[in-house]
Fold:
Amino acid sequence: MPHLIVFSAFGLICVAGAVNLLVQRHPINSALSLVVVMGSLAVEYLLLGAEFVAAVQVIVYAGAIMVLFVFVIMLLNAGEEDRTKGSRVAMLFGIPGVLIGSVLVAWVLLEKSGSGNVAVGALPGPPKVIGWLLFHDFLLPFEVTSVLVLIAIMGAVVLASHPGSVQQESAQPDKREV
Structure:
């Protein structure tokens, strides 16, 4: 029973952090809310008995990826977001889409929730097996993901560069002493 209470509490923290992520106006506050979501997910994984996944969640996502997000936010010098009324197209298609999606998720959960249990040890779990799968069987998707992250960083640097500063430096005469 205490296990279920802790699991539910961290589930609520995760959902509250996700809602706060969407509501925040400043990007740094949104990034910190995402850290809360990642941390609470790590605790959820610990409670489910997936210690390796919890450690990877903290080290890779809550650590490295979030540092990268904060670096890009700082590099872009993103300020506070302006609030708008929203688009009519988003209201026209968004609200029915969310309702239909919610009904579909509820139906799947109600219909397929009792599909059976998985035996302990039936899924890959030890770090050696996960490492073999990651760097042998799924090497190409792993490398494609790292290249996409590198491209995203380069795009952020290009967007953050000020085109006037490059032209001003080239327009100044060479001031070398002879």
Observations:
- The CA atoms of residues 46 and 151 lie 33 Å apart.
- The mean pLDDT is 80.
- Residues 1-81 form a domain with the Four Helix Bundle (Hemerythrin (Met), subunit A) fold (CATH 1.20.120.1200).
- The helical segments are 2-23, 27-47, 51-76, 88-112, 127-137, 139-160, 163-171.
